[in-house]
């Protein structure tokens, strides 16, 4: 079964102009109607670091959850953020960005990789106590622009450490849109076979013309969980390429359905969500 994760948080977080809280909530409520597996809807991080997400708690209060089929995921960057997120029963998953690049870990969470792994362990204990699940994102999972060490073997070492902590979902992230199809297939094939107890996701950034190719490569490697954002909005500022954004969800849906996967989505509500995205993101 395919797990499709829609990421309005990732699409919004880098925008310079603050999106009104009511508009955020209305957009997420519309996304609920589509039937995605999970919505990556907000984050509990420093408002100085990500001012766009400073109203995540307020957005949550405005969500219509009584008929929502999608699960909710919030990103956290430290134990304090995890504790804040765990105050809300409505949140199912806490996502933590663990980088395989020392430079990016410092830039992203102001911590070393060693410190970040300790944070993952602490958050895992908190999640287990509260009946929640942690999703670990392996940032710079397909290479980095800093000259830091990288290899598929390094990814396997990180996954082994996460497996020892009983992490059940690991999303390999192509932060700068550098992944080749060959590397995507290789990484997922090796890890899905070595760690069958873990659900591996693909959080890939891509130029629009490469989305179908990358989805197919991940499928070939055994990946069955995909992150995206409608219209491909968002991405990493360090990509230094305006065309390298999130994988456009509508393109992924088309690709997966061509391959015979029944995603269980409400297509008319997906169309409405695409229209609302044009308004939210000022397209």
Would you summarize the structure shown here?
This protein has 283 residues and is of the alpha/beta class. It has helices at residues 8-12, 21-32, 56-61, 79-85, 102-109, 113-130, 152-164, 181-194, 211-220, 249-258, 267-280, and strands at 3-6, 38-44, 71-76, 93-99, 133-139, 169-174, 199-206, 225-228, 245-246.
Polypeptide structure, described:
The chain is of the alpha/beta class and 283 residues long. The chain has one domain (3-280): Aldolase class I (TIM Barrel). The chain is built from 11 helices and 9 strands. The chain has helices at 8-12, 21-32, 56-61, 79-85, 102-109, 113-130, 152-164, 181-194, 211-220, 249-258, 267-280; strands at 3-6, 38-44, 71-76, 93-99, 133-139, 169-174, 199-206, 225-228, 245-246. Strands 1-2-3-4-5-6-7-8 form an 8-stranded parallel beta barrel, surrounded by 7 helices. Helix 9 packs across helix 10. The longest helix has 18 residues, at 113-130.
Sheet with the most strands: spatial strand order: 1-2-3-4-5-6-7-8
Largest sheet at a glance? 8 strands, parallel, barrel
Overall strand count: 9
Share of helical residues? 40-55%
Q: Return the domain count.
A: 1
CATH class: Alpha Beta
- Principal-axis shape equals globular
- Low-pLDDT parts are 237-241
* SS-based class: alpha/beta
pLDDT averaged over residues: 94
Radius of gyration: 17 Å
Percent strand: 15-25%
Distance from N terminus to C terminus (CA atoms, Å) equals: 33 Å
CATH superfamily: Aldolase class I
Helix and strand sequence: EHHEHEHEHHEHEHEHEEHH
CATH fold-level topology: TIM Barrel
CATH hierarchy: architecture: Alpha-Beta Barrel
Q: How many individual helices?
A: 11
């Amino acid at each position: 079964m395919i797990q499709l994760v829609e990421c309005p948080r990732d699409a919004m977080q880098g925008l310079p102009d603050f999106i009104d809280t009511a508009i955020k909530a209305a957009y997420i409520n519309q996304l609920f109607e589509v039937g995605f597996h999970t919505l990556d809807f907000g984050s509990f991080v420093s408002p100085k670091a990500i001012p766009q997400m400073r109203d995540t708690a307020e957005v949550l209060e405005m969500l219509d959850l009584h008929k929502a089929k999608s699960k909710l995921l919030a990103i956290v960057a430290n134990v304090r953020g995890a504790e804040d997120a765990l105050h809300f029963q409505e949140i199912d998953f806490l996502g933590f960005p663990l980088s395989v690049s020392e430079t990016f870990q410092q830039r992203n969470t102001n911590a070393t990789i060693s410190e970040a792994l300790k944070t993952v362990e602490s958050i895992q204990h908190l999640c287990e106590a509260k009946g929640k699940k942690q999703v670990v994102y392996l940032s710079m999972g397909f290479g980095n622009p800093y000259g830091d060490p990288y290899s598929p073997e390094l990814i396997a070492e990180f996954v082994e450490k996460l497996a020892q902590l009983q992490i059940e979902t690991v999303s390999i992230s192509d932060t700068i849109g550098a992944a080749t199809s060959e590397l995507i297939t290789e990484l997922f094939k090796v890890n899905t076979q070595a760690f069958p107890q873990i659900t591996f996701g693909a959080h890939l950034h891509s130029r629009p013309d490469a989305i179908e190719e990358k989805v197919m490569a991940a499928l070939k490697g055994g990946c069955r969980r995909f992150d995206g954002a409608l219209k491909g909005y968002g991405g990493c500022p360090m990509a230094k390429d305006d065309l390298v954004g999130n994988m456009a969800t509508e393109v992924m849906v088309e690709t997966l359905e061509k391959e015979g996967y029944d995603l269980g989505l409400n297509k008319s509500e997906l169309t409405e969500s695409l229209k609302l995205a044009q308004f939210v993101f000022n397209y």
